[in-house]
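Schema walkthrough. Field components (list of strings):
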Amino acid sequence: MRIALDAMGSDECPVPDVTGAILAAREFGDTILLVGDKNRINQEIAKHNTKALQLDVIHTNEAIFMTDKPGIVGKSKPTSSMHIGMKLVKDGDADAFVTAGNTGAAMAIATLFTLRRIPGVKRPALSSVIRVSNDRSIVLLDIGANADSKTEWLLQFAVMGKIYAANGLGLTNPRVALLANGEEEEKGNQLIHETHALLKDMDLNFIGNIEPKDMLAGLADVIVCDGFVGNITIKSFEAMGSTLFNLLRSEIKQDPLAMVGGLLAQNAFRRVYRKVDPFEVGGAPLLGVNGVVIIGHGRSNAKAIKNAIRQARLAVNGGLIHAIETGLKNVSQINKESDM
Amino acid sequence: MRIALDAMGSDECPVPDVTGAILAAREFGDTILLVGDKNRINQEIAKHNTKALQLDVIHTNEAIFMTDKPGIVGKSKPTSSMHIGMKLVKDGDADAFVTAGNTGAAMAIATLFTLRRIPGVKRPALSSVIRVSNDRSIVLLDIGANADSKTEWLLQFAVMGKIYAANGLGLTNPRVALLANGEEEEKGNQLIHETHALLKDMDLNFIGNIEPKDMLAGLADVIVCDGFVGNITIKSFEAMGSTLFNLLRSEIKQDPLAMVGGLLAQNAFRRVYRKVDPFEVGGAPLLGVNGVVIIGHGRSNAKAIKNAIRQARLAVNGGLIHAIETGLKNVSQINKESDM
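Field assembly_structure (string):
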């Protein structure tokens, strides 16, 4: 498999990006195409033993920053590492593209300039794979691509999310739920009410509304919401998680007895941290664009980049793009028939 | 001061409710009117030394359960402890009402059957007071009363939230923000965009959009959102908090060395827990109804009930209801003038 990686993606690029690529090439045996500034990439590569690894460097002299406006980078930076990396996928020179860069820019460049949408997709969605307490992973989408969403988009998010959970994460008949302010059918806002009514009649293993608590308990596999709610939900999880870890650290530091206790318990702490660490997943796909694109966190370290590459190869091996195209066709077929 | 308490409110009622009332009467010296089943209330009172405390029992033979539908309880249970308790406030026989019962029912009974709205209020909102890491409290609203909200309602939530932060929590010139998926002005959904544009021109110390992370860091005092988003946000905080504490507990239990460490660090743990424990606040008001009504969590313990009563007396002492009426008049005056 050939995976293109945005070497200029993460906040600390190209260090974690190149190191992660090396880890991935070593562990998975794939060819990694490192897209970005060749001097800086080669400088990083030189620090490692990369003999026998399949690493190619594709030079570009432009990179996208976190501060770049998604609405203009497609035109203003036509040879960015994102643009070139996605073009490799579009032209069949790579099987997938992975970036820890500007998410909005990635969505815009994929949708409007390079890969474009899978036929039938109304709006691509940004997904997040979250590890939940019982070591399962769940998919939450949309987490930010569509702040205002329509019912028919949410229905497609449900279909695409379910296919990704099956073909990318290997879950059997994933359970689909709608994120809401209560599990009862009458809970939700108007968008959720309308979507709920339609999802009930679709063959999607829809289990109804779900609250954040049951979501983190792994009671559904695919959780659907609009991009505004999804983004705030994921950021609320992150905010509370880091707040608690920081509070614990600072309280323990102020108390010599607790310091000793903290040292004795540090392996337990580490196991907890690993369970909730988003870098163990690494990234999640832009669902609906016509090619596998995995987006990682800007703060990705090398492990996160390696794991994002793992998500890319799972999606490619699962035939994600073809499955979404077929799945959406079937749904629109059913909808047409039921309209008659 | 005379505070009416729903003795049949909490999940374990009337035990925590009555015990909390006794703690409050002892600490604050107020008269607490315990509304509910007099036999069960007196049975609880008999377990404590209540000499010299001002406790009155107001008997009702109906109570509202968490499973009751808010839409019908106002009519189907006209003598519930909530109904009677709010009527005491309406009739001037109590200064405030506190309940740990069914939130939706409390909102319906307050708005449609007893206290009704403060003149000028379009929609009452449910607020939450959250303690943040630096020991400050912030107000989040709406957290569930209005799943679909309009711009003009959100503007009123901002005004009411700011007044509560000043007159109930004692904050000086509270900073108002909109909960959004990014702090930049262009972030948000359509509702947030429209509200943002109008809030900028109001004299509210509006500081812009805020993300969950900065909210928990205490960078704003009043955070405004629609009831659907607010409810999911608060539930996401709670879900991640309890998930992490449970994970830590279970990992520590499985590891003898960590068990010892956990014991040594237990005071630090307790301090962290206390910092994020919602029971330290106890409850938050229904903002916009014409009387002080404080809603606590269904799982309230006695400490939470006592602290909810504390919130009630702070709001009464701060002249909350009058301040909201005046505040909304001033805003609608300004809006009218700017329309001319």
